[in-house]
Amino acid sequence: MSGTKDKTYLGTELKYKVTITASGFSMDDDDWSVTISRGKISKSFPKSECIHGEDGWYVCFDTSELGAGQYIATITALVPDDDFPDGFRTEVQKITLPLVEQ
Predict the structure, then answer these.
(1) pTM of the predicted structure, to 2 decimals
(2) CA 11, CA 14: separation in Å to the nearest integer?
(3) Which of 7, 63, 78, 90 could form a disulfide with 31 if both were Cys (CB 3.0 to 4.6 A apart)?
(4) pLDDT > 70: what percent of the chain?
């Protein structure tokens, strides 16, 4: 997941490509989610609520729902791994997104 701007403005609808890579993990077949947060406010997007395009997966959201401030994307992936009791290893990554100003 990556951004190209340093800031954006409240009311902007944002779309970010989500790329998860891990040995044995498939974004199409395995489970993952993205949570967008600003302070104590957050909105979660399970894989089923993300968009699958020709060139990958995307998360889309409206900044009007979360307000102005610094946004963080938390990506959680369940990576198949037989060394864990449930057969999956949870991997979490946090990415700072561009600042949303009023």
Answers:
(1) 0.90
(2) 9
(3) 78
(4) 95
